[in-house]
Structures are given as C-alpha cells and as structure tokens.
Input
Amino acid sequence: MRITCPLCGERDRREFYYQGAAVALTRPEPEAGEAAWDDYIHNRENPCGVTRDLWHHEMGCGAWLVVMRNTATHEVLEVELATDAKRTGA
Amino acid sequence: MTRTEGGCVIELRAKSPCDGLLPLSIGGVTLSEAAPGAMTCLMPYKGQAAALSGALEVACGIAAPAPGHSTVSDGVRILWFGRETLLLIGPEPAPELAQHAAVVDHSDAWAVVRLEGPGAVDVLARLVPVDLRESAFAPGATARSELRHMQAAITRLSADAFEIMVFRGMARTLVHDLRDVMESVAARAGR
Output
C-alpha cells in the first residue's frame, strides 16, 4: 500500500503511522452532552468499503493526513493535510 | 585530566558524532563524515512562511526551498526538513530570523555522512523506501524518510553522492547498517 503525501509525494506505507477514524477533526463542544461525547469517544464505524482515517507521516515530513481509502480493495482514494481538512470544515 | 591548583578537572574535547567510525571505502563506494558547520532548525510561525523566506534571502542570499528541495549558495545551504520546517546549514542564523520563526540550534543534533561512488545509489536503495532514480530524485532533491528503521534526511548532492543525516545518537547504527549493505552490494557486483 502506498499513500501520496501532499508534501512528499507517493511513499511506502511503512513511513506512516495509523491513528484511526478521522473523528478528532469534529470534536464535540464541551457542553454537547453525554450522548455526543459517548459517541465521539467510544463508537466507531467498521465499514467494508470507504473509510476516512487519520494517518501520521511519522518517518517523513511529520504531517497529519486525512486519508480516504477502501478497506475492501485497499485503494487509496484521497489524501489531504489534516490542517486543510480542518480549515475547510470537512 | 588536567592538574590545576592541586585538583583535577576534566578537560572536555568535542567529538564528532562518527568519531572513530569513519571513513570507510568498500567496493568503490566511500562513506565519510561531513563537517557541515552550524545547523539551525527554522519553523515559521503561523502565516510567516513567506516572510521567513524573504528574511532568508536578505540574510543568506537564498530563499526557502519548496518541499522536497534544497537551495544552495556560497557556503550556505537550506534544506526543506519536513512540514513547515527548514534546516539552515553553514552560517550562524541572523538574529532577524527569530521574528518570523522558531529558531533552534541543531548543530550537535545530527550525524551527517556522505555516501559517494558509482554504487552509492544501489546501497541507499536497499535501505530507503524512496524512488532514488535521477528522474525522480535529482541533485538538490531532499527527502525525509526512513533508513532501515531510523528517521533520516537524505539529500542528493550529485549523480553519485548523497548526504545522509540521522539523530546523533544513531551514528553507530547508521554506520553499521550502511557498512552491511555496502559489503553486500559490493559482493553482488563482484567488486
């Protein structure tokens, strides 16, 4: 599997660290209530298909990335810097 | 130990990171330690990347390089060194740079070695998961990647010469891993 880092270009998977679902970009407000926080902390989708995750380019430029990929085909569909994803409110 | 005024003080001597380990020459490829001078990490403050590049042009005569590249002028080099990070090599940093960026002295932080010779690219290709062909990684190109399992910065100096940087504490491992591969590449080529 290879991931195209927006800064470094196409790189081998071993340079990246997998963090998990990209929920950290949409953290609930402190007063959002128990249900929202419970969902944010504990509940995750486990899709057979397209998923959106946070990866860290640990052995490369050090950027956090939002990677869309297909868990069934291993296809990497889209990669963007987490700072850009956050700015555009995705 | 130096005896002074009746007591002993330890006389400290600076050692380079690869002191006693290099140079090496195996199968036409040489590995030697570089003495790059001062190394300064520059991390621009939010929205200050362009201002920092301008300040570098005034102070050193060269602008900040784009990701994956380095810029060079007389005795000064600037490497792209990761996301929003540059490494200034050679001179002491001008004080004005601190207006635009966090300025951190890295002079003693890195082991810097030079791998040269006709087979240098074959040696590195066994250790680094980056496309090192000249079409993809021309002289002046630089990459942050891993070398075996070490975080490294690799810069192509010319067709047959690379500069490799790892954390200073990894110097012995770096030389060990490179020596291993230099030997096997030379054996494979029958040199």
